[in-house]
Design brief:
The chain is of the alpha/beta class. It has two domains: 167 residues, 3-Layer(aba) Sandwich (Rossmann fold); 134 residues, RecF/RecN/SMC, N-terminal domain (Glutathione S-transferase Yfyf (Class Pi), Chain A, domain 2, Up-down Bundle), CATH 1.20.1050.90. It has a six-stranded antiparallel sheet with strand order 2-1-4-5-6-7. A six-stranded mixed sheet has the order 8-12-13-3-14-15, sandwiched between helices. Helix 4 crosses helix 5. The radius of gyration is 22 Å and the shape is globular. The structure holds adenosine-5'-triphosphate (ATP) and magnesium ion (MG).
């Protein structure tokens, strides 16, 4: 996947930018608050996902403007393609000029992997963020997973509201079986896909991490289910407690992935550099998995990745991203001098200067 041309109009602090990147490493540099992350964020929107900064669509439109228009011309598996997004209170996406039913339809057309400081939450925060990561990553390579996820969430909501009603309406107890069955049906599919993905992740991320730490540290990822045994049995065992608490205590919505460095939890014991390396290893592995499925590397978006990393880790990154298109932001491009060939774009006040 390679972007040939990126055009942004009225996007955040950018009035207009036209950027024609190279196929390799593109360095976007400048002082703080000039619009570097905004460019990365705009590219990310072409994956069909929302902003990785959690922004509402409206916030992406330049203050005082009615709408924002962003577009890319790109190369996908050797074929020319084009996509655009019009942003107002919501996003409206077009592929080759044809309106799409929803921006989510862009998913799979254009692929990218992003790492930004907010992705450190993958290591530092609670399990919900890691589950979201798994679910989004699996959706990118297996669209049918999204339906299982939606059905599971629906069944879970129904079951939970039923659990809350049962203490007052004992006769409702019989209907619980129906929702249990649906929960089991979709839950097992979700768990199966997640375990498979976690294995792939472990395989690739372990290698990236070994490289990052110059083979000095070990890294491990494991899927951690919320209970032992099959879901049917677990739901049955927990039924009484679930009725008392009014919520479902087992199932994929309570699972996690355990990420370890040198055998101990990266979340509890990792240093800042180790946590950053771990998040980065997971993200780089995500890119390798997309490539193994689609045959093509996704565009790699690295926002402010170098801070907190020592020279040896920085070198490893720069040496291992040359075979794909990368956009990397930083304040001081000299720090990336080792990136060698590539293009540099200096951003000042929302413009390329
Ligand atoms: N909707 C908007 N309209 C106009 N300006 C905006 C809008 N949203 C954000 N900005 C401005 O964009 C500016 C720069 O954003 P950005 O996050 O891209 O900076 P950056 O170059 O990545 O800086 P840093 O090095 O600190 O990460 C901010 O000053 C912010 O006020
Ligand atoms: Mg930034």
């Amino acid at each position: 996947m390679k972007i040939r041309k990126l055009t942004l109009k009225n996007y955040r602090n950018i009035e207009k930018i036209v950027l024609e990147p190279c196929d390799g490493v593109n360095i976007i540099f400048g002082e703080n608050a000039q619009g570097k992350t905004n460019i990365i964020e705009a590219i990310w929107l072409f994956t069909g996902c929302k902003s990785f900064r959690g922004a509402k669509d409206r916030e992406l439109v330049r203050f005082g403007a009615e709408k924002s228009d962003i577009s890319i011309e790109y190369d996908s598996a050797g074929a020319d393609a084009e996509a655009s997004i019009e942003i107002t209170n919501r996003r409206k996406a077009f592929s080759g000029g044809v309106p799409l039913p929803s921006p989510v339809s862009l998913m799979g057309e254009f692929t990218a992997v992003v790492f930004s400081p907010s992705h450190l939450g993958l290591i530092k925060n609670g399990p919900a963020e890691r589950r979201r990561f798994l679910d989004t990553a699996i959706c990118q390579i297996k669209p049918s997973y999204a339906a299982a996820l939606r059905n599971y969430t629906h069944a879970l909501e129904q079951r939970n509201s039923l659990l809350k009603d049962i203490p007052y309406h004992g006769e409702l107890l019989d209907t619980l079986d129906v929702w249990d069955e649906r929960l089991i049906q979709f839950g097992e599919k979700i768990t199966e896909e997640r375990i498979r993905y976690a294995r792939l992740l472990a395989d690739y991320a372990t290698r990236v991490y070994a490289g990052l730490s110059d083979e000095k540290e070990s890294f491990d990822v494991r899927y951690e289910a919320s209970g032992e045994g099959d879901l049917k049995q677990l739901l049955f065992q927990q039924r009484k407690n679930d009725i008392i608490s009014g919520s479902t205590s087992v199932g994929p919505h309570r699972d996690d992935i355990d990420i370890r460095i040198n055998g101990v939890s990266a979340r509890s014991f990792g240093s800042q550099g180790q946590q950053r390396s771990a998040a980065l290893a997971v993200k780089m592995a995500e890119g390798e998995i997309v490539k193994s499925v689609t045959g093509e590397y996704p565009v790699l978006l690295l926002d402010d990745v170098m801070s907190e990393l020592d020279a040896s880790r920085q070198n490893y990154i720069l040496n291992n991203i040359r075979d794909r298109q990368v956009f990397i932001t930083c304040c001081d491009p000299d720090a990336l001098g080792r990136a060698g060939t590539g293009m540099k774009f200096r951003i000042k006040d929302g413009r390329i200067v």
